[in-house]
Specification:
Strand content: 25-35%
Structural class: alpha+beta
Helix content: 25-40%
Number of helices: 3
Length: 164
């Protein structure tokens, strides 16, 4: 079973803090916890928290422009749940390599996916972040698009890289 959240429904603005190591991670975890608590207690900040997590064009460590194409949820045969955050980064077609954007994947997982899933009260076993040089249809093979993927398990509000 697949659930789709179209891009048009996600035209909310946010600040996605940069994080990867050290103090950045501590600050992001604090922010994610605050957003989750705000949503959990249904306070006046609930709407602001949702708008503060997901943005159509998040800021990433590489500084490259990208936009959210869609979010897909699926349940696999083993009953595990997966959330796919599919992004488009046009600069990939101009020669951007995976190593140039490697940190962006973790950043999008911890700074966008985890808080978004918490606010939406979605529990998943895995988050897959993908970036392509153009919009593609999920599940269809294409010879013209360049795509990069990273998989993370989500445990205790953080992303753990699984690697393909």
């Amino acid at each position: 079973m697949k659930f789709v959240t179209p891009r048009k429904a996600l035209a909310q603005k946010t600040f996605a803090p940069r994080t990867f190591f050290g103090a950045f991670t501590k600050n992001l975890c604090k922010r994610a916890t605050q957003l989750t608590l705000s949503a959990a207690f249904g306070g006046a900040l609930t709407g602001a928290a949702t708008a503060g997590v997901l943005e159509e064009t998040p800021v990433v460590p590489s500084g490259n422009d990208l936009h959210l194409q869609e979010i897909l949820y699926e349940v696999r045969a083993d009953e595990s749940r997966v959330a796919r955050f599919r992004y488009v980064m046009p600069l990939i077609r101009q020669g951007v390599e995976f190593t140039d954007i490697e940190e962006d994947f973790f950043h999008l997982c911890i700074g966008v996916a985890v808080p978004y899933l918490a606010i939406q009260d979605e529990t998943v076993d895995q988050v897959i972040i993908s970036m392509a040089d153009r919009e593609t249809t999920f599940g269809e093979t294409t010879q013209v698009a360049t795509q990069f993927f990273e998989a993370f398990s989500v445990q205790d509000g953080t992303c753990i890289w699984e690697g393909f």
